[in-house]
Every structure is written in C-alpha cells, then in structure tokens.
C-alpha cells in the first residue's frame, strides 16, 4: 500500500498543471525571497523585481499571469505600478494582488479603483496567499479561455466573410448570366412590339419572361415565376429559358414539325402539360413554377393562352377598358396529370397584352397587396404612355405602393402592343 502524503509534501498536489508565471515586486530583498521560495515550492514560475520601475520594464517585454506587489515602495508605489501595468497593451489579463498593511476601506477602494484585483495584509499568511493565488488562477484561466474563444470567433468570422465575398462575386456573375437569358428587352415583330422588364429581389431570381417566333405569322409570349428565391430558382429559370428558346428551336418544348416539315407549335394547354410532365418525371425536384403562355397570330390578332397558377393576363384595350384572361389553373410541377385549358381572345390594333408575375400583383403596401384590380387601375391611369415608358411608370407606381421599400419578391412584366396589318 502506498503511504499517505505527509504535510511536508502535500503542497505538490496543488501545483499548477502548467507553470503559472508570477512577478513578485518588493523593494525589500528579504520579503521577495520569502515569497519566492513559497511560490516556487508550490510550482509557480517566479520573477523578482526590486522596484515598480524595474517591474514595469519586465512587464513591457514579458507576460505574467499574476503580480504580487508591495504597496509602499521607494520611487514608484505599488498603486502607481498597478496603474501603469493596466495601461500596457497586453492582450491577456494579469491578476494583480497588492500586499499592504493598509486596512482602511477608503484605501482599499482606491486600490480597486486603480486596477488591483485583490489585497493581502502583511505579514502574509501562507494559507491565505495560496487561496488568493488559486482564485487568481481561476480568473486568469477563464480570461485566457475567453480570449481564445474570441480569437476563434474572429478567425471563423473572417473565414465566413471570405466565403461570403466569394459567393457574392459568384452571385454577381450569376446575375449577369441570368440577365443574358433575356437577350432582348425590346422586340419588333413587325405587326406588334414587345417590351420586357425583370427586377430580381436579390442577386438572382426566379422570374423569366420572353418570346419566340413560331412561324411567319405566329409568335409565342411567356411569363414564368419559379417557386422560391436564390440560386436554385435561378438555375431552374436557366433551364426553362433553354426549353422556350428562340435561338434553339429544335430544343424548344413548345415547337414541333408538321408532316410537311414546316415549323408548328403545340397548343398552349399542351405546352403546359408537356412542361408539367417534364417537371414531375424528368427534373424531379421540389420546385414548381407558374406560367402564362400566349400564342398570337400577328395577321388576325387571334390570341390563345394558358394560365397555370400565374396572375391573370390583362388586355388594356385601346378604348381604355381592361379585360382579364385565363381560368387560373394549377402551377407546373405539382400534380401529375393536371388539366390545363386554352382560352382565346382577339387583339385589335392598339390593344396591349400584359403578362406579370405575382411580384407585381402581390406587391405589399400599407393598405395590403396591390392585387389585379390595383394593377388594372394603374394600367388605366397610364394608358397614354407607350412601351418602355409604361413599364417604367408601373415600377414607380409599385414603389409608391410599398412606401419606397424594396420589393420583397422578384418583379417581372411582359408588355405586347399589337399594331396589326397596315
């Protein structure tokens, strides 16, 4: 059986796991030596200084965890040294204990006010000294841990900032690429003209609007709003832009060929059905999108349109009346076998067709969302404006409706003005 520790050697059990650096400051060499021998026996790494000035020089170049300083010394007093010690630009904390025969409360308060952490009365009691040192170690240890964690947080935040900056640059480039999907903001079809306006609520968005030519007399117009925001929605709009592209007709999901090899198009309801099937069977993602897709005969003005969960397309007649088109319909990519219906109308010369995303109709304001009635009112009030001026006026009206706040959702609009045969 191992013998029990004796009183002579139990101090070794309390030795710090790693050496704690202690600075002993006293102008009495005998007092310094007494304190130093005790501290070294307890496992502390001790440095002696014979004056406050000498101690301050040590502290400028070295780090001490605990300082034991006599209050009354020739030259710089312990209190003055404490003030100077606290003013040094050290990142880590040093626990400062003043050794004094002073016991008046006002003097003790003065010491605490000037940076001292604790006091020990002279002559110093060994057990009390050890207890005060342990208390100092705990505080220094907690302070060092806090500093380490702050450094860790600072380093992590710096890394996060670098990642954010990199992502921000990527998103800026992604926005440029997404904007390039809508190559022409103004298109002249001869017997009609189209203007596009898209404003994402973030770097990139889920709105898409565009057109393509079917044949020598027919064109198609579309407006898409993909669910959600950000990169995933933007990637889906990029795919849909390819599927409804005028630059790659052989990949356009709406186009087909007649038995004679001439270009033709599926009816609008079939286009919606094909897109719905593609989303559910091929793409298989959690996203869905709403769609307004219109086929227009530029000679006759005949309009055939499908609405799939999108806001109702509006026709601003040359007379000032506003007609609402569509039957609502289910969004694309939600329900297998969803039924879509084509609705028809006729455009007369001077009539204008509007396809807008719900970022317009659901634009919030102090009195509630704008709504389709609010949009119709704005269009009637701006009926005298043409083309891009009308779209810019619409944006100003939306901004007024929000009270000047940023739009919370992507905003897009396609305006088609029918001029008809001369």
UniProtKB/TrEMBL annotation:
Gene3D superfamilies: 3.40.50.2300, PPM-type phosphatase domain. Residues 21-137 form the Response regulatory domain. It comes from Stagnihabitans tardus. Keywords: Hydrolase, Phosphoprotein. One of its GO terms (molecular function) is phosphatase activity. The keyword Chaperone does not apply. Pfam families: Response_reg, SpoIIE. The modification 4-aspartylphosphate is found at residue 70. The keyword Hydrolase applies. This is SpoIIE family protein phosphatase. It comes from the Bacteria. InterPro entries: Bact_Sigma-Reg (IPR052016), CheY-like_superfamily (IPR011006), PPM-type-like_dom_sf (IPR036457), PPM-type_phosphatase-like_dom (IPR001932), Sig_transdc_resp-reg_receiver (IPR001789).
């Amino acid at each position: 059986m191992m013998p029990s520790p004796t009183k002579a050697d139990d101090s070794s059990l309390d030795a710090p796991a790693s050496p704690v650096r202690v600075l002993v400051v006293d102008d009495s060499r005998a007092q310094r030596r007494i304190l130093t021998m005790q501290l070294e026996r307890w496992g502390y790494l001790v440095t002696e200084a014979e004056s406050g000035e000498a101690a301050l020089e040590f502290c400028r170049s070295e780090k001490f965890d605990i300082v034991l300083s006599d209050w009354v010394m020739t030259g710089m007093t312990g209190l003055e040294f404490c003030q100077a010690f606290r003013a040094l630009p050290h990142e880590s904390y040093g626990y400062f204990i003043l050794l004094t025969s002073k016991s008046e409360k006002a003097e003790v308060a003065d010491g605490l006010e000037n940076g001292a952490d604790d006091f020990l009365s002279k002559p110093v009691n060994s057990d009390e000294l050890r207890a005060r040192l342990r208390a100092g170690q705990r505080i220094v240890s907690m302070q060092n841990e806090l500093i380490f964690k702050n450094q860790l947080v600072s380093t992590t935040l710096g890394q996060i900032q670098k990642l954010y900056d990199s992502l921000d640059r990527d998103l800026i480039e992604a926005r440029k690429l997404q904007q390039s999907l809508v190559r022409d903001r103004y298109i002249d079809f001869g017997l009609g003209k189209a203007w596009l306006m898209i404003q994402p609520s973030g770097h990139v968005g889920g709105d898409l609007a565009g057109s393509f030519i079917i044949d020598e007399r027919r064109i198609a117009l579309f407006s898409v709003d993909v669910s959600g925001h950000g990169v995933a929605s933007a990637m889906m709009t990029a795919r849909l832009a390819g599927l409804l592209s005028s630059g790659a007709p052989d990949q356009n999901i709406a186009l087909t060929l007649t038995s004679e090899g001439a270009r033709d198009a599926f009816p609008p309801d079939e286009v919606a059905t094909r897109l719905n099937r593609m989303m559910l069977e091929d793409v298989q993602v959690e996203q869905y999108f709403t769609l307004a897709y219109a086929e227009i005969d530029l000679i006759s003005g005949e309009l055939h349109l499908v609405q799939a969960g999108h806001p109702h397309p509006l026709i601003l007649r040359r007379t000032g009346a506003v007609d609402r088109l569509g039957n609502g319909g289910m969004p694309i990519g939600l329900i297998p076998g969803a039924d879509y219906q084509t609705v028809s109308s006729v455009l007369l010369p001077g009539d204008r067709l509007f396809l807008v995303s719900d970022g317009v109709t659901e634009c919030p304001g102090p009195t509630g969302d704008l709504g389709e009635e609010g949009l119709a009112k704005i269009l009637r009030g701006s009926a005298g404006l043409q083309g891009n001026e009308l779209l810019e006026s619409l944006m100003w009206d939306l901004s007024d409706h929000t009270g000047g706040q940023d739009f919370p959702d992507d905003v897009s609009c396609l305006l088609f003005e029918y001029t008809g045969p001369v």
